[in-house]
Write a structure and sequence with these properties.
Chain A is mostly helical and about 300 residues long. Chain A has helices at about 1-35, 40-60, 65-90, 100-120, 150-170, 170-180, 185-190, 195-220, 225-240, 245-265, 275-285, and strands at about 125-130, 135-140, 145, 220-225. Classes of the chains: A mainly alpha (about 300), B alpha/beta (about 400).
Amino acid sequence: MLQAFLQNIINGLAQGSVYALVALGYTMVYGVLQFINFAHSDIFMLGAFSGFYLAKWLTPIVPNPLVLLLATILGSMVFCVTVGLTIERIAYRPLRSAPRINVLITAIGVSLFLENLGQIIFGADPQVFPALIATKSILNTGGLVLNNIQVLVVLVSLVLMVVLHWIVHHTKLGTAMRAVSFDIEVANLMGIPTDTIIIFTFTIGSALAGAAAILYGLSYPKIEPLLGTMIGLKAFVAAVFGGIGNILGAAVGGIVLGLAESFTVYYISSSFRDAIAFGILILILLFKPAGLFGTFRREKV
Amino acid sequence: MKISMKNRCFQLALPLLVLPLLIIVGCVKKEGGVASAVANAAASNEIWLGEYGSMTGSESTFGVSTHKGILMALDEVNKTGGINGKKLQLKSYDDQGQAAEAVTIITKLITRDKVMLLLGEVASSRSIAAGAIAQQYKIPMVSPSSTNPKVTQVGDYIFRVCFIDPFQGSVMARFAINNLKLKKAAVLRDIKADYSVGLANYFVDEYKKMGGEIVADVSYSSGDVDFKSQLTLIKGKNPDVLFIPGYYTEVGLVARQTRELGVKAVLMGGDGWDSEKLTEIGSDAIIGGYFSNHYSHEDKSPVVQNFVAQFKAKYGEVPSGLAAQGYDAAMVAVDAIKRSTELSPKAIRDSLSQTKNFQGVTGMITINEERNAVKPAVVLKVVGPQKFSYVTTINP
C-alpha cells in the first residue's frame, strides 16, 4: 500500500513537472499583460515537433546522447522563442491598446491556426518521438520503480524554475518585469521599456514550453498536432490554481495537479481524471478567486 | 487515396461549413436520396459505391489500409467486365477519425453523390453514428471491421463482414486459458471507445466462465498518454495476463509503461492492435504480446496466398488484416449486387442478407439474422518490429 502511494507520488511528480513548465508560460504572460495566451499550448506542440525533426537530423551527427539531448532541448527552446515572438509581434502587439477581450479572441484564433497548420504540415497521424536517451531504471526496490527519464524530467524542470526565480527576483530585468506586471503605464512613465520587457516575457515563457515539450516527448513518445490542447488546459488550470500571474503558484499548481491526477486514477477511477482537474479549478474560483498564492487586485476604474 | 493539402484544408473547415447545411438538408424530405439513386443507376453505365474512413487522424493507418483493400477488389471486378457490363465506381471521403465528421460525410455520399451502397467504417463508434444515417435513408452499409455488436443493431440496412466483439473477447479469454494456461487476468479498457468496452466485457464474462480470475478491471480514455497510476494498481494484483483491448496508439504507450513499472504479465488485445505503428510506438515492450485478428497473411490457404501476392504486386506491401477486411467487404457487396434482382438499395439489401458461405480472404463468410458475419478468428503474436506471426485459428 505504501509502495503504491510512493509510486503515485513519483508518477505524479513527473507529470506535474511538465504541467508546471507549461503553466509558467501562461502565468508570466498573464502577469505582464493580463490576458491568457491560448496559443501557448500550441507553441508547446511546435516545440515537440521541432525536437522530433531536430533529433532525427542530429542523431547521425552527434554520437554523445547527453550532447544530443541538450542540443535538442536548446534547439526546441530557440524554435519556440522564435514562434512565440513572431506571434507576439504579429498578433498581439498591434492590439496592445485594444480592449483585452480582442486580444483574447486573437489568442484563440492563433491557437486554432497553429493546430490546423500543424495538421497540414505534420499530418494528423501520430509520430514516434525518438528515444534520445535509453530508458533505464534507477531504482527498483520493493515494487517501487523510478527511471532515468522521470528523474531527468523533474531535475530539468527544477533547474529551469530556479533559474526563472533568479531572473525574476534577482536581476534588473526581473525587477522591470515585476514593475510592468504591477502597473504597465506607471512602469512606462518611470522609463521602463515596456515593449522590451514584454518581449522578454514571451521569450522566457516560450523557451520553457520548448523545454517542456522535449521532456514530454521523452516521457510519452507519441506526438501529434493536437497534443497541446489537453496539456494546455491542464497547465492553465494549474496556473489559475496557483494564482494566475504568480510564478511560484504556477509551479506548485502544476505539481499539485499532477499528483491529484495520479491519485485520482489510482484510488478512484481514470474517468474522473479530467473531472478532478477541472473540479479543482471550479473550487478554487469559488473559494479563492485569486488562486492559492495570488493576490486579488481590484479592477482599476 | 492521396489527399492534397488543399483538400485537407477544406476538410478541416468542412464541419463548420456543412453543419448548418446538414440541419437544413436533414429537415427536407428523406426519400429524395433513394429515389434519385435508382433513377441514376438505371440511366448510367456505372454503379457508384461510397466509402468513408479515417484517412487521417490518429487511426489513419486503419482507414488507409481498408481503402487499399476496397480499391483492389473493385479494380479486380472492373477488369473482368464489372457487373453485367456496368463498371463499379468508388467515391471515398476522409472522416479524420471523428464521428461527427463521419455523419457529415455519409450524408454527403447519400444525398449528393447518390451512392448505391456504403462501405465503412473501421471504428465501431463511427459506424454506429454514420449507420444511423444510412438506415434513415435506407441505403445498405457494409462495415469491413467494426466489431461492436451495436453496429448492426442500428437497423436492417447495416451489415458487416467481420465477427463481433463477443467472439473476439471470448477468443482471447479461451486462448489465455486453454493455450497459455494463464488463470489470473487484469483488464485495462478504453472507456471512451465502444469497441474497447465491448471487447473487455465479453473477455471478462468468458474468462470467469472458464474458471479464470479477473484481479483488476480498470480504464483509461483514448487520448491519454499516462497510464502509470492504473498500471501501478494492476502491478499490485500481480496478474498473469493483461488484456488491453484498445487501439494501437494508446496500446503502444501502455506497453512501454507496463514494462517500465516492471509489470510482467503477458499482454493481449484485439484487432485494434493491427498496425505497423504498434511496434514503433510500443518498441520492445509490446513484443511477445498476442492479439486476435481477422486473418493472417501467413495462412497457407491458396485464397489468402493469392490475395497477398496480388496486393504486394499492386501496393508493394503485405496487406494488413484491415486491408483484407476492406477487400472482403467490397467483394461481399459485389456478390450481393450481382445476385440482386434489380439495381436498387432495397434489392441489394435483400441479397446481402442472403449471403451464405461466401469464400472471402478472411474465411468463409455467412451473414446471420443479426446481419453479422459468422467466421473464424486467428490469434497472432507480436514477434518483432512490424512482425506478427500466426499462432492459431479459433472457429466460432
